[in-house]
């Protein structure tokens, strides 16, 4: 049949898009593995569109991506292609199953909760909730006294999460990743056992449990066949960043691989720190018999050749790599720039100047991005943008959910759904005047056996100093109202507390109204809470939360959250040793290799212009085990000396404003400073 809607694709992409779709049978398993910007995601959109145009039922298609944003971009592309092909678009966003592994897992577990021994009202804990529960359990066991120097709640959670996701024995996890905690192995084992029991009795699943529970129920072949049978086609983007549990779930969904399409790039695997395993994608073909077909793509459509040459030089140093170098026919005289500046503040000023200059030249803010390794590294650039009134949206940064008032309101909703959720309970009860941790614990103990929402709250003796506010609380917990009125009820109860707790109550009040607005777009409290917990909205320069609509704004993003995306101009902060690679990432070859891939991912986001910042004095914060400090920075080791001449090293000092006299800072003599420090 004629497929003019596939004309845009090159031969390899087209072969992948139509692979196995000729007959009535489901296509055999397919792996598309290729470098950055080679049109993998674009091919995937065309493949889904082709399936729909040729009669596949959109409700029997499951599309898994690495973020909700990526999922909705993909389905929008599918809708555009099907609209052009058929006259009217197939409502892919509404009809196909789309989302992250975690979100899909939550949906399945919720739908089948009773059958698999879960209560359908289960709460989902985000990382902060999990750390809070870990802390409650730790304190309960008397492990965390100041004398014992037991690992922090965050470290405990990281160890637990690593063990769960990798499936490795605790002793191995400690030896390989947390050797300084190895002496606590026995206590940690007890802690984790108690933590798991606490989650069960409190009817709570954490982030890792969503995959773990999903993988566990899929071990039952009948159940797996039932779930897997719900979809004909299961397609996954960014497969290099999945972990072993996800691979297990996938093969349980489609044991013979028919209907499976996975797409990715081993050179972009950057989530090993969360137990992602690049072997998943490399081993995929041999998980089936006969082995899956493999299609590779070679042409990069995204970047100019100079950008690609620089990125290729970075990844060429990798110890192991499957995907090959790409080529581009986009010649350009504009080489990637390595900009040496004295400090991070000057780096921020230089980049904002460039960004505004380019905007004057016609490049929208939306076509530009600033990428960084860790959210905290953006502080200087955020300050500079705010000072100069440049709107921005920050991906993967301080999440909307992290603000106390948002967390409070969501906890009220959560507690009303699941009174066993002690983390939510402690949080909400302590909002009531006169209720501290002890009273909160006592109230929750009195409730422990009640599992139905609202049950038993009325029987609890009111705390002595709570007064009339107790009845208001009980009413909020027990009044049955349909969604989304429930969030209005929760907000009405919480609202008067804002003035008591926060100085900037008005701004927070506005946030909560916005949150209520967002909530009305969801079919149920569960859907709303799940999505917000797993994939919260990004922070904006305006207010945390809702993206600035119809406006031009700059994107700030961690490199991890920039995966799969592209901008005409990309600025990378702190291309220095100590940042990329981070000083925590240099412990082992594996970690170092992941750092190299991180830089490769960052550089390959750029279409036309790429700028790397090299502040000579780099402030190491949070990442350092020894506390904050300045380091004298050198260029990241991943940019080989041999290609440095392809970069223009630009020295930059602040512009002198007419009439203003400013002392010129003396250039930093790094060698002399080192000698002064170490003799
Ligand atoms: P990443 O590895 O970063 O996720 P990718 O391989 O998924 O990259 P895409 O995002 O699909 O690459 O494509 C990169 C860019 O190339 C997009 O702007 C896309 O529209 C464009 N592109 C892809 N295929 C073609 C093609 N055949 N002709 C022209 N442009 C294309
Ligand atoms: Mg992609």
Automatic annotation (TrEMBL):
Gene3D superfamilies in alphabetical order = 1.10.10.160, P-loop containing nucleotide triphosphate hydrolases, PCRA, domain 4
Q: Where does ATP bind?
A: 34-41
Q: Which PROSITE patterns does this entry report, sorted A to Z?
A: UVRD_HELICASE_ATP_BIND, UVRD_HELICASE_CTER
List the InterPro entries hit by this protein, alphabetically.
DExx_box_DNA_helicase_dom_sf, DNA_helicase_UvrD-like_C, DNA_helicase_UvrD/REP, P-loop_NTPase, UvrD-like_ATP-bd
- What keywords does the record list, in alphabetical order? ATP-binding, Helicase, Hydrolase, Isomerase, Nucleotide-binding
One function term, GO molecular function aspect: helicase activity
Q: Does the keyword Protein transport apply?
A: no
Q: Which Pfam families match?
A: UvrD-helicase (PF00580), UvrD_C (PF13361)
Q: Give the Enzyme Commission number.
A: 5.6.2.4
- Give start and end of each UvrD-like helicase C-terminal domain: 305-564
Chemical reaction(s) catalysed: ATP + H2O = ADP + phosphate + H(+); Couples ATP hydrolysis with the unwinding of duplex DNA by translocating in the 3'-5' direction
- The UniProt record lists the keyword Electron transport: no
The UvrD-like helicase ATP-binding domain is annotated at: 13-304
Superkingdom in the source lineage: Bacteria
> Member of which family?
Belongs to the helicase family. UvrD subfamily.
Q: Write down what this protein is called.
A: DNA 3'-5' helicase
The organism encoding this protein is: Paracoccus marcusii
